[in-house]
Amino acid sequence: MTGYFYIFGTILFTIYGQIILKWRLNTFGSLPEGSFDKIKFLLGSLFDLYILSGFISAFIASMFWMAAMTKFEITVAYPFMSLSPALVFFIGIFFLGETFTWGKVIGLLLIILGTVVTVKF
């Protein structure tokens, strides 16, 4: 049972990191056009505490993934990672104001069905 806890931790921290990065970068605006401006923009973003927490979250997710790899074969554990897009879809709609489409819903249902088939068989 602890193996599933590790997978859940991986998913949770991965999603947090991605959502927090998207949220903060949305507040900073678009990536500038010039090469120097792009570097300045990205390096300046690194000093935002929320973005830093996103990177820390990615590191913690990696630690959980390492623990999960000690409990499962990768062919069993990795399909669970495909649940991340479904969770990100709902978080993106409700918290980031992203668009809802039925095509995305159908795609997510197919991903979840594929996850169930892969894990069960």
What would you note in describing this structure?
This protein has 121 residues and is mostly helical. It has one domain. It is 82% helix and 0% strand. It contains six helices and no strands. It has helices at residues 2-28, 35-45, 49-69, 74-81, 84-96, 102-120. The radius of gyration is 17 Å and the shape is globular. The model has no long low-confidence stretch (mean pLDDT 90).
- The number of E-state strands comes to 0
Low confidence ranges? none
Number of domains: 1
End-to-end CA span: 19 Å
The largest pleated sheet is described as: none
Shape: globular
Briefly note the structural class of the backbone: mainly alpha
Pattern of helices and strands: HHHHHH
Radius of gyration: 17 Å
**Strand residues, percent:** under 5%
The number of distinct helices, counting runs of at least 4 residues, comes to 6
Portion of residues within helices: over 70%
Average pLDDT confidence is: 90
Topology summary:
Blueprint: H1 2-28, H2 35-45, H3 49-69, H4 74-81, H5 84-96, H6 102-120
Defining traits:
0% strand; 121 residues; globular; mainly alpha
Quick synopsis:
The chain is mainly alpha-helical. Helix content is 82%, strand content 0%.
